[in-house]
Design a protein that fits this description.
Layout (H helix, E strand, L loop, with lengths): L3 E2 L5 E2 L9 E2 L1 E3 L1 E6 L14 E2 L5 E3 L10 E2 L9 E3 L9 E5 L15 E4 L11 E3 L1 H10 L6 E3 L2
Parallel strand pairs: 2-3, 5-6, 11-12
Antiparallel strand pairs: 1-12, 4-13, 5-10, 7-8, 7-9, 10-11
Length: 151
């Protein structure tokens, strides 16, 4: 077991965009993204994909691409989160299938498993681990693996 950080709004069955809640449920990992300038490729499974400097994740319920990766976009007319963050939270991240692929607007976007700011420092709704723990977990994830979040 590893200590983790969860959303500032706790865990709930119903998730809304911007509520800070970590959604309860059992989720598949649909992607593993990493910053090649910060995490060595050899530390991750072969299905991991690099984050480019202009990659975004749409978090705007009005966006037709809501809750999807926007590789190389850089600019986007809707609200979107930059994945190449300066703070290291997204040096590597696993994308959960919450509200995906057919995203329902407003039901929550960008539920990731990523590196934390520190012990007990809440996230915006994601699950976060210390970077060494995250990398250990990510290296062992398989297609049949699941992330289980219980309230």
């Amino acid at each position: 077991m590893f200590p983790c950080a969860l959303g500032r709004g706790g865990i709930a069955e119903v998730k809304r965009e911007g509520d800070g809640v970590t959604p309860a449920g059992t989720f598949r990992v649909i992607g593993l993204l990493y910053r090649p300038d910060r995490v060595g490729r050899a530390r991750l499974p072969d299905w991991a994909l690099p984050i480019g400097p202009f990659d975004l994740w749409s978090d705007d319920p009005k966006d037709p691409d809501y809750n999807h990766h926007l590789p190389g976009r850089g600019r986007h007319r809707f609200s979107a989160e930059r994945l190449a963050r300066a703070d290291g939270l997204y040096d590597a991240l696993m994308v959960l299938d919450h509200n995906w692929p057919g995203a329902v607007p407003g039901r929550g976007s960008a539920i990731f498993v990523h590196c934390w700011r520190g012990p007990r420092v809440p996230t915006a709704g994601c699950v976060a681990f210390a970077k060494p723990d995250f990398l250990w977990i990510a290296a062992r994830f398989r297609p049949e693996s699941r992330v289980v979040i219980r309230g």
